[in-house]
Design brief:
Length: 89
């Protein structure tokens, strides 16, 4: 039996042929968003040097909300994998 990590390692086109693979692709997208894009923006060195600490703090607060929401999305998709991915509906 494959888990979402095993499925996620298959080539993209092959994965998308099954429901489990399709859901694994969705998990990968959520991971890329939360672990890549948003985290990059939480590093003040990735912003213009003229940004004020207060402005950065406000931005970081809002991005943290997005990261938390993305983690919730991942949990929802992981539950779908558990409930439906193995059945290959």
């Amino acid at each position: 039996m494959e888990n979402d990590r095993t499925i996620a390692r298959k080539p993209h086109d092959e994965r998308r042929k099954t429901l489990a693979g399709y859901l694994a692709s969705a998990l990968n997208m959520e991971d890329e968003i939360s672990n890549g894009i948003y985290l990059d923006y939480l590093n003040p060195r990735n912003w213009p040097g003229t940004i004020s600490p207060e402005t950065f703090r406000k931005i970081a607060t809002r991005l943290t909300i997005l990261i938390d929401e993305t983690k919730k999305h991942r949990k929802i998709i992981a539950a779908l994998v558990k409930d439906h991915g193995e059945k290959q509906c």
